[in-house]
Specification:
mainly alpha, Arc Repressor Mutant, subunit A, 175 residues
Length: 175
């Protein structure tokens, strides 16, 4: 398989879009970062091996989540020698709740993105600067030529506006 293979590119794009969500999901089930990382790697391998079984147009994350769930169960079986912290019923309940919460989170993230688009340009620019990778309030103040105090106050005001926009949008949609 060459790197330019569309099959590779499609899988890579779909998997990259949900990898951090899968890790968090696995962490919620396994409660140890190293265990979640190990199972995530197994999940990625299996997703790649079974990608021909994935139905294009369906929710890739849900498909990968099922694989991750079964990989986590197998991992727990292999760890039987270690004391189990949670019962299988708890494990199953967390699985169900994580999927439901992920769907709610996706809606909230989409709503947040729409609300950010509604901000005046200077506020959008400030948000973009402040939440750039590695940015701090101090670096944002320096980039804008404003004081740290100004950035704190402006971000507090923007956060409040975004909160109100999200709440209003979700209540209008009944979510």
């Amino acid at each position: 398989m060459s790197l330019g293979n569309p099959y590779n590119e499609e899988f890579s794009q779909l998997y990259a879009n949900c990898e951090s969500w899968l890790y968090n999901y696995l962490y919620s089930l396994l409660r140890k970062a190293a265990d979640a990382e190990e199972v995530l790697q197994e999940t990625a391998k299996t997703c790649w091996e079974k990608f021909d079984q994935y139905q294009p147009g369906t929710e890739f994350r849900a498909w990968a989540c099922r694989i991750a769930y079964y990989k986590a169960l197998k991992f727990r079986e292999r760890q039987k020698k270690a004391p189990l912290t949670f019962t299988d019923l708890f494990f199953s309940s967390v699985d169900e709740e994580a999927v439901v919460m992920a769907d709610r989170l996706d809606v909230r993230i989409a709503t947040l993105n729409n609300c950010v688009k509604k901000l005046p340009f200077p506020d959008r620019k400030l948000v973009r600067l402040r939440y750039a990778p590695g940015a701090t309030t101090k670096s944002t103040a320096a980039a804008t030529g404003r004081s740290i105090y100004f950035v704190y106050r402006a971000m507090a005001r923007i956060h409040q506006m975004l909160f109100e926009c999200i709440e209003k949008s979700l209540s209008m949609e009944g979510k």
